[in-house]
Amino acid sequence: MVPCLVDEKGGLIAGHGRVLAAKQLGLDEVPVVVARGWSEAQKRAYVIADNKLTENGGWDDELLAAEMADLKGPDFDITLTGFALDDIETEAGDGIEDAPDSKYKEQFGVIVICRDEAHQQEVFESLAGSGYEVRVVVT
Prior knowledge:
Elements: E1 4-6, E2 12-14, H1 16-24, E3 32-34, H2 40-56, H3 61-71, H4 85-92, H5 117-129
Parallel strand pairs: 1-3
Antiparallel strand pairs: 1-2
């Protein structure tokens, strides 16, 4: 895993997505690199530059389609890749929506903002107990 970047007080500068992915995978630790001696302006500039690099990035469409096709299957939720189902269908291009038994069908979601972790648990249990498919996302 690529290390996250933290300041000397442990504040996360870069790697928010990696931390969220690690939580979803049940990892307790992630590697970090400490930005020692950085000013607040340097940290803020790094955050902007890091996000700009992501924005300017691109994909090898053929390689991405092959990777997505390899990941598809009943034992893996392909949406964990961060791609929307429409993106996956476009990139993989091999008929996800045409498969009648596919679990990759159009989905709709609602985001609920909770007061705290206890409220989150209460809402989760209530919705799950009512038969809804519920996922917890921590931001």
